[in-house]
UniProtKB/TrEMBL annotation:
CDD domains referenced in this protein's UniProt entry, alphabetically: PaaI_thioesterase
Organism: Paraferrimonas sedimenticola
SUPFAM superfamilies in UniProt: Thioesterase/thiol ester dehydrase-isomerase
Protein name according to UniProt: DUF4442 domain-containing protein
Residue ranges of the TM segments: none
InterPro entries in alphabetical order: DUF4442 (IPR027961), HotDog_dom_sf (IPR029069)
Domain of life of the native organism: Bacteria
Amino acid sequence: MSAQSSVARRVQSLQRWPDWLAKPLMTLAFTRMVPFAGTAGVRFEQWDGDGVCLTLANKRKVQNHIKSPHAAAMALLAESASGAAFAWHLPNDKLPLIKRMDIRYVRRATGGLKVRAWVTPEQQTQLQSEERGSIKVAIELTDSLGEVPIEAEMEWAWVTR
């Protein structure tokens, strides 16, 4: 494997702090790169080599007309988590690009949302060894009842900078 990504190095430098400070710092670092995620209120719970866990509270600014999380808010959360998990393993000389988002809304979401995303060891090897390509980053999004309101597949591509 090649050198650790600059994203991983930056996030690890924040993780030396206690959780009550590290989590807001990780959120701030991400939302400076992706301001829209900050506008919506995306929050980091975990960001490391094992994956990413993000949350989104069911506040008015992300609700639809029936007071549940908006479809676009769920898509943003899934895309943000998959992108953060992808970026952790992406070599510094590669540019990340979202290639495809396939989302199927299967039930109404209740309350806040939590999403987990991860890159498999095989995908990590592919990211390190290929000049360009794409992978489907696994995600699992649940609502406050533990139900799965969406089934999503996020395909991320990379090219040499």
